[in-house]
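Tokens as discussed.
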């Protein structure tokens, strides 16, 4: 890199395997800002990336806090122009209460999209990691879709459809959060587009990560294994496969793609709606 050339910054929110896999494909010659709620996770991921030749800085972020996300934006901007955002932070149904899931996965994602949408560089791109769970939720009304997509961030959790009497368990909270992520990204693609930037979601199925391995060993394990056995691919996915799609969406080959959601689950959702995984 020329000494006077502006530095392109890739922000990775969530230090897990999927965020790292995408970052490895798009961050050569750029500066990675790796943010996580747990600094020890960010530091461990940074060591792996540093050892592979990437330039990495770490910081702490709580995506459910506007002040924390704004501080992350400020930190990232101090290194250069933000040309990429990989949002892979979140909590799963087995990790948290419905209230926490909505606060982190739904509100937190909307917050990240809003704040980084103010600073993303022309020609930049982002990707949000959603989930195949968003595709299992029955169809919402047109009005509900619009509410999830466009309600101002600070009013989002006040929506009637998100109140405790409507969202009664963690799985439902997770499903509606992930559906909300893809809807929000579609709406944000309009705003990001005015800056010459793009934003998309990826909805992975069962991807082998430390979290998935824990799930496979836990009470949800039999259900996970059944999905893997009965889907068209007959297996789980890998972070590198998600990384390949992420690189497409954030790179020049994906220049005509924005506001889209990419379901990559080995055929689990297809089998859920139309195959052997369909509810009885």
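Sequence:
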């Amino acid at each position: 890199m020329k000494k006077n050339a502006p530095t392109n910054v890739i922000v990775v929110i969530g230090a897990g395997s999927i965020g790292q896999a995408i970052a490895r494909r798009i961050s050569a010659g750029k500066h990675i800002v790796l943010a996580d709620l747990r600094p020890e996770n960010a530091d461990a991921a940074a060591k792996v990336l540093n050892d592979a030749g990437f330039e990495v800085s770490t910081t702490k972020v709580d995506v459910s806090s506007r002040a924390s996300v704004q501080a992350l934006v400020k930190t990232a901007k101090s290194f250069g122009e933000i040309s990429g955002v990989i949002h892979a932070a979140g909590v799963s149904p087995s990790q948290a209460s419905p209230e926490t899931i909505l606060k982190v996965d739904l509100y937190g994602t909307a917050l990240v999209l809003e704040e980084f949408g103010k600073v993303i560089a022309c020609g930049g791109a982002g990707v949000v990691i959603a989930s195949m769970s968003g595709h299992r939720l029955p169809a919402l009304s047109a009005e509900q879709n619009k509410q999830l997509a466009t309600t101002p961030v600070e009013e989002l959790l006040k929506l009637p459809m998100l109140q405790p009497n409507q969202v009664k368990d963690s799985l439902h909270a997770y499903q509606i959060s992930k559906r909300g992520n893809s809807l929000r990204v579609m709406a944000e693609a309009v705003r990001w587009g005015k800056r010459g930037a793009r934003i998309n979601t990826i909805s992975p199925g069962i991807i082998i990560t430390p979290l998935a391995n824990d799930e496979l060993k836990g009470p949800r394990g039999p259900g996970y294994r059944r999905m893997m056995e009965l889907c068209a691919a007959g297996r789980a996915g890998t972070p590198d496969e998600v990384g390949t799609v992420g690189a497409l969406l954030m790179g020049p080959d994906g220049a005509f793609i924005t506001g889209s959601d990419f379901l990559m689950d080995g055929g689990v959702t297809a089998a859920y709606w139309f195959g052997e995984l369909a509810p009885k």
